[in-house]
Amino acid sequence: MNATAPQEPLDPRDRPARLSVGVVGAGRVGPALAASLQLAGHRPVAVSGVSDDSVRRAAALLPDVPLVPPAEVLARAELVLLTVPDDALPGLVEGLVDTGAVRPGQLLVHTSGRFGAKVLDPATRAGALPLALHPAMTFTGTAVDVQRLAGCSFGVTAPEELRLAAEALVIEMGGEPEWIEEDARPLYHAALALGANHLVTLVAQSMELLRTAGVAAPDRMLGPLLGAALDNALRSGDAALTGPVARGDAGTVAAHVAELRKHAPGAVAGYLAMARSTADRALAHGMLKPELAEDLLGVLAEGDLR
Questions:
Q1: Cα(14)–Cα(87) distance, rounded to whole angstroms?
Q2: pLDDT the model gives residue 306
Q3: Theoretical Cys-Cys bridge with 134: which of 106, 124, 155, 195, CB 3.0 to 4.6 Å?
Q4: How many CB atoms lie within 10 A of CB 211?
């Protein structure tokens, strides 16, 4: 029997419609994306994870998919999801290349918001096909994440010749592809962190203060208010600003600062910073009268000095 000649790497346009999928890093994101790709007909074949939480997530979202070392994930999969923390990604890519784990023609997809496709350059030089697909969504590590991907925007960055393939994968996961240029990735990610991550901090602080004030169910009180505020902000931007800062009620803001110093001193700096930013935006949009802004900014400045 004649030996089979080595196969040439597949052009992305000639790839089989269904791919074997591997996950390196079974955090909150990777198993959910792999489960979503499975619903689209792809086949998860391997996952890597170290912590007990990672093992549990993989077992829950990808049952019967073997847990193996990262190099073995790459050996088994045509499409590999690199879903590790941003700061760990460059070292992971270099390590996989140095050990010869990366194969020509293999699709490597990372989900970092900060990085574009260039962070995968060492793997690209080894013949891999680099894609950056960042879901603009917060993840819980449970099955609900798969449902939330429906209609979720993904920040997509890839070489031009792979753009259609990248966008097709996003659509298969139920997402909406949004093209982000390579050099805009850090700004894109900062914008999402500012809106989502800081929102969680603000809401958690607000609930703590309401409990201190005697509110038994701060979540029920805040839910309708914050839902309306978010909807108004998404619809109208700065025109949705309201409250004592936007009105220039310096006395009320001073009372807020005094109460926060008494009951939650750790929240004062954040309150002052957000109040100052709100005042600047309200002034720029003609909502805050200059004569009222002077007293308000004075109160904020005094708050910094105490």
A1: 34
A2: 62
A3: 155
A4: 12
**Alpha-carbon dihedral sign for residues 218, 224, 226, 229:** negative
Strand order in the sheet with 43-48: 43-48, 20-24, 79-82, 107-110, 129-135, 153-157, 176-179
Q: Name the nearest CA neighbour of 167 among 159, 158, 177, 157.
A: 177
At residue 43, φ and ψ (nearest 5 deg) are -125, 100
* 179-201 residues labelled b (16+ CB within 10 A) or e (exposed): ebeeeebeebbeebeeeeeeeee
Residue 81 near residue 33, CB atoms below 8 Å: yes
Gyration radius of the chain's alpha carbons: 24
Contact 101, 130 (CB under 8 A): no
Q: Output the six-digit token pair for 7.
A: 């196969």
Q: Count of alpha carbons within 13 Å of 40, Cβ hemisphere only?
A: 24
Which of helix, strand or coil describes residue 303?
helix
CA distance 55 to 27: 9
Q: Which residue has the tokens 């990085």?
A: 115
Q: Per the confidence metrics, is the pTM higher than 0.90? A: no
CA 241 – CA 225 distance, rounded (Å): 13
